[in-house]
TrEMBL record:
Gene: Hikeshi
Organism of derivation: Sakesphorus luctuosus
GO biological process entries: cellular response to heat; protein import into nucleus
Sequence ranges assigned to domain Hikeshi-like N-terminal in this UniProt record: 6-130
Gene Ontology MF terms: Hsp70 protein binding; nuclear import signal receptor activity
InterPro entries named among the record's database cross-references: Hikeshi-like_C, Hikeshi-like_N, OPI10
Compartment(s) where it occurs, according to its Swiss-Prot or TrEMBL record: Cytoplasm; Cytoplasm, Cytosol; Nucleus
The name this protein goes by in its record: Protein Hikeshi
Signal peptide residue numbers: none
Highest taxon listed in the record's lineage: Eukaryota
């Protein structure tokens, strides 16, 4: 039903079923993993009104399991990418795997998937740092890049009286750069 992918490793398509509605994938050498992709294989959909909460579990300094909610997958959202590299020092959260005695070793983490009602998934709050770059961060980067370019180009602006003739240089009027900047911002917003 589920698959798990870590860059540079083989796809894991056979999770360990630890309860009727709970599945785990082992992540050996988890200290060297930045992102994990969890996805549905497409062979078996969730039952109507159900989805899967995705958790990350790693052993703390004492060897105790620390579980953190990453997000979810559903029939409508059958895959998700999670950033786990910054989670290894956070606090744990409530999780449905508490009563299970899952083996923990110092270099193996786990991804847990718990099948739950969709209304329960909507009420859960994932760890903020697990979200992967979104369109908003791309838009933010592009906006900062545009601002930087405009400020840089404008810093070289001179009046026509200040210009010294030089046949090997081409000059672009500052209002042309400003017009391009404004048009690009408008398109980015759309």
């Amino acid at each position: 039903m589920f698959g798990c992918l870590v860059a540079g490793r083989l796809v894991q398509a056979a999770p360990q079923q630890v309860a009727e509605d709970k599945f785990v994938f082992d992540l050996p050498d988890y200290e060297n993993i930045n992102h994990v992709v969890v996805f549905m294989l497409g062979t078996i959909p969730f039952p109507e009104g159900m989805g899967g909460s995705v958790y990350f579990c790693y052993p703390d300094q004492t060897g105790m399991a620390v579980w953190q909610l990453l997000g979810f997958v559903t029939n409508e959202k059958p895959s998700a990418i999670f950033k786990i590299s910054g989670l290894k020092s956070g606090k744990g959260s409530q999780h449905p795997f508490g009563a299970m005695n899952l083996p923990q070793t110092p270099t193996v983490a786990q991804i847990g998937i718990s099948v739950e009602l969709l209304e329960n998934l909507a009420q859960q709050t994932p760890v903020a740092s697990a979200a992967v770059s979104s369109v908003d961060s791309f838009t933010e980067f592009t906006q900062k890049m545009l601002d930087n370019f405009y400020n840089f180009a404008s810093s070289f602006a001179v009046t026509q009286a200040q210009m010294t003739p030089n046949p090997s240089e081409a000059f672009i009027p500052a209002n042309v750069v400003l017009k391009w900047y404004e048009n690009f911002q408008r398109r980015l917003t759309q």
